[in-house]
DNA sequence: ATGTCC
């Protein structure tokens, strides 16, 4: 693979059309990159090599990177890849290993001033920790819920007691804001997953998981560019919000394991392959493709229900600390690792998002009804100690199938970060020991050193690129006050 | 990401 970072003037294949967008003619097809120049050049040649392999999958219509793109297994995190629904392919590699990984945001009726005392933040973190296990082999507190119901019906499979605002599919309340509270699929595929994995997944309901997953208590800062939308969404400056970042836990892993071998067999039988043996894909209409797609959707149901259950536990923790008048209203739940059928420009397509977030603009018919006029919230996490963002799609996002970034994007590996970053540096970036410290549920930070902000790009610059490219706008910045992390 | 090698 030759160098794809040539001098722009010397290479006729290198096209730059705007400061935040370029189309790159790779040997296997076109790659669209939405990023400021320096962020693009920082991505590295491996990122483009991976795109070239992904573009070798037959019938691909479109592939792009967001500014937070970085190397992943088979496919970069930060990829949007589109096929036609009729002659399309599905790729477990372009969905990613943590199927249904995504974000959920709840709005409270509290103000940042209510959490100014560091002791209050500590009390809240402890109260959350008590209800949401984060340790290795963690077991959740929701054994009364049937896993089968969750996998088949998503949020609609939860008992009423876990839906505090009285949501039922017939009764429109705040939960109708939630993106795809139920994914439908060919349920026979569930039989592929062996019994022990069902038990494991059942035990994990209501647990956070490790890596970049987190629960954060944040203070909102609305952006003047979209203050009208902020008001319509019920946001106000200084308002305390809860952000949850988690995925489908071991269930998603089981889906990858048990449908992955069938996908590999299908590729072999059909003589399919690319430059990367780890890049897995199958025709949408093949048995393997259908099985994977069905099981993937079961994992999406698991992920959205799991985030919902954690929010239920957090709501309970808030009531313990702040009294029964404390509220946690659902703003939105939106994943950034998935694939599914979507209609764009009147065409039925199959869209993959791996570490990219859908952000529909105002008026788009696919917005849930309560967000039809404003566009739905696009939930973007920052790294530890840095702000997260509530975004809204812009009209111009249509040229990227309404996909934006999914966060800061890793800039160095977990191992490299542990070598490079010192615990003291991490602690000072969280202002540990100061009155305004970001309270974390770990006594020592060694266990989560690989999550220090030094491991990530600057999320503010990622957001600048997304806004600069005309894909989305900022509605509010979410400043962290406290964080719960797994290991 | 993941019961990260039952």
TrEMBL record:
Necessary cofactors: Mn(2+)
Assigned EC number: 6.5.1.-
InterPro entries given in the database record: RtcB (IPR001233), RtcB-like_sf (IPR036025)
Similarity remark: Belongs to the RtcB family.
Catalysis performed (reactions): a 3'-end 3'-phospho-ribonucleotide-RNA + a 5'-end dephospho-ribonucleoside-RNA + GTP = a ribonucleotidyl-ribonucleotide-RNA + GMP + diphosphate
Protein name: tRNA-splicing ligase RtcB
Name of the top EC class for this enzyme: ligase
Superkingdom of origin organism: Bacteria
Keywords carried by this UniProt record: GTP-binding, Ligase, Manganese, Metal-binding, Nucleotide-binding, RNA repair
Keyword hit for Coiled coil: no
Matches recorded under Gene3D superfamilies: tRNA-splicing ligase RtcB (3.90.1860.10)
UniProt subunit comment: Monomer.
Keyword set includes Magnesium: no
PANTHER family from the UniProt entry: RNA-SPLICING LIGASE RTCB HOMOLOG
Organism: Paenibacillus artemisiicola
Taxonomy of the source species: Bacteria, Bacillati, Bacillota, Bacilli, Bacillales
Cofactor binding annotation: Binds 2 manganese ions per subunit.
